[in-house]
Write a structure and sequence with these properties.
Distance between the termini: 38 Å
Radius of gyration: 20 Å
CATH superfamily of the largest domain: Cyclophilin-like
Structural class: alpha+beta
Number of domains: 2
Shape: globular
Number of helices: 5
Strand order of the largest sheet: 5-13-6-7-10-9-12
Strand content: 25-35%
CATH class of the largest domain: Mainly Beta
Order of helices and strands: EEHEEHEHHEEEEEEEEH
Largest sheet: 7 strands, mixed
Oligomer: single chain
Helix content: 10-25%
Length: 249
Amino acid sequence: MTTRLLPLGDSAWTVEFGSRIDTELNGQVMALANRVAQARIDNPLFAAVTDVVPTFRSLTVHFAPHATDADALAAQLLAFAHNMQQSVITGKHWRLPACFDPSFALDLPAWAQAKQMREDQLIERVLATQFRVYMIGFLPGFPYMGGLPPELAMPRLASPRQRVPPNSVAIAGEMCAVYPWESPGGWNLIGKTPVPLFDLRQTDQPAMLAAGDIVSWYAIDKAAYEQLFLQCQHGERSRETFLAPGDAT
């Protein structure tokens, strides 16, 4: 699919790279997001940009329409998109704990039955997978993470729950996610993480994960979950302690 530029009202442009969900397209999205971030520093044309919103396959650039030339901005965005190197852009690599206790993993038995596998086998596959954060949406801090092997894909629940507990780890299709807040939801619940993925105390970036990040899970028992949960709530564990070795800053 040819890269397309689409107007979003009179104060935003959307650059669309394709029509599928995959790492290559999302890498292009993130590469353009990085290029726009740099242009906001060194290109007066981009000084009016107020926000950039990456998705699975597109980037929306919001701007103040009276403070820039919208057509010139559009032309420069397309030029950036066409001249980028075709490489996959990744962000931080996180190692996050997850507890798969039956009280948290409400849909794990049904998943195991559907795939004719043991529950521990499914958990092992999840722990062996590196998930890529394609986008943040639905709720503040809610990460849409791709990477679940196709043979393990599960449809959404036929009847969504009215209340999904916060911090629930869930799957739907070939995606994995975490519900940062209690909310309705139709994804299959397979565990829970004690790490808050949205924290207003982190004023620079309340959402812990960002598009382009990589997430690996490691298993903990319920006692460790409760301990880590309290540590995170009391500010005794910083986000940086969950970065993969070599990614800490």
